[in-house]
Amino acid sequence: MATRSRPTFAEMTEHYPGCQWSLPEDVFLSDLGIAEPSFKLQPGCMVFTVGSCFAREIEEKLQQRGFVVPMMNFGVPKEEYLFRPNGILNRYTVSNIEQTFTWAESIKRGCSLVEATEPFFLPVESGTVDMDLAGFAPVSEERAWERRKEMWAVWRCAFEADFIVMTLGQHETWLFEPRDRFWGNTPAHRECAPFWSQTLFMRPSFAELLAAAERAINLIRDHNPGAAFIVTVSPVPADHRYFGGRDALTSYWWSKSLLRAVAAALCEKLERTDYFPAFELVHAGGRASWREDGVHVRPSVVRRIIDRLLEGYLE
User: Exposed, middle or buried: residue 99 (CB in 10 Å: 0-12, 13-18, 19+)?
Assistant: First the structure.
């Protein structure tokens, strides 16, 4: 009989604390879910952050720790976006992340900013809507172009950054069929109403999500081969509601589980691409991890997540 080489579940739970059903009193003081890094970071290096609103939480803490974070140099006035000044650059889905990396990479290759950007601009009665952004408040055409130039000044840094944090947020997305472009957010704004009849609701499969995420990373590495990636999954639910016909709780866990599986496959497939369990650390903390709104993570918890990450990754 062949010698059994794989431990049984009982053996694993006996010898590896991360497999115990009961969580340690303070999960941040354990090694639960923290894999050995495949690369190290130099203090003060450049970090490019892309993804959902949870990426905005992460970048604020990284800047406070002395890292160069280009995304913190971007901001729009409140009349364009009500929340964080750079929150209009949130990329909630893998499709949106790939789309914006493709836009930036086409300019990097020599395509003019005008040619790369025009498909995203939609004319409305009160101005221009940029469908690639997370907010759809109309602006003048002049302002729309000015904002895109500011956006390019930030996104070009992805091709120079030492490492990139990519936070996967949701998988439900919306495709504007005539332009073959994804909306940067649910197009619920009244200014988007003329385009609803040509907008398709999309729920990409695991294979489609994995392929899109891999393409996004390869777009950067074509120009920045040394870039290392840290992939996370945002614990934050959809801001308004889910559209797949299931209840919010089921939809939340379906979406996050799918993205978590994509992140795992991505990190197994690509070198210098690590998963960091921010999603798991937030949920391990239970209700105490969340702000009063039950949607966003407490800043103190995000700070501890970044501290835990840097313990392993800092040179």
Answer: buried
What's the full length of the chain, in residues? 315
Whole-angstrom CA distances from 2 to 5, 212, 285 are 9, 41, 42
Backbone angles phi, psi at 208, to 5 degrees: -65, -40
Q: For residues 81 and 94, what is the distance between their CA atoms, to the nearest angstrom? A: 22
pLDDT at 19 over 50: no
Q: DSSP assignment, residue 134?
A: S
pTM: 0.87
5 in a domain, yes or no? no
Q: Is the pLDDT of residue 103 over 80?
A: yes
How far apart are the two ends of the chain, measured CA to CA in Å?
A: 46
Residue that wins the pLDDT comparison between 3 and 48: 48
Q: How many domains does the chain have?
A: 1
Specify if 21 maps to a domain: no
In this structure, what CATH number is given to the domain that contains residue 82? 3.40.50.1110
CB 296 within 8 A of CB 54: no
Tell me the C-alpha to C-alpha distance, in Å, between residue 280 and each of 32, 228, 268, 275. Answer: 9, 22, 18, 11
- Tell me, what DSSP letter sits at residue 245? S
DSSP state of 32: T
In a domain, 197, yes or no: yes
- Domain containing 286 equals 43-313
Distance CA 54, CA 188 (A): 21
Residue range 231-288, pLDDT digits in tens:
999 888 876 667 777 777 788 888 999 999 999 999 999 999 999 988 888 888 777 8
Distance CA 80, CA 77 (A): 6
DSSP element (H, E) containing 128: strand 127-130
The Cα–Cα gap between 163 and 142 comes to 33
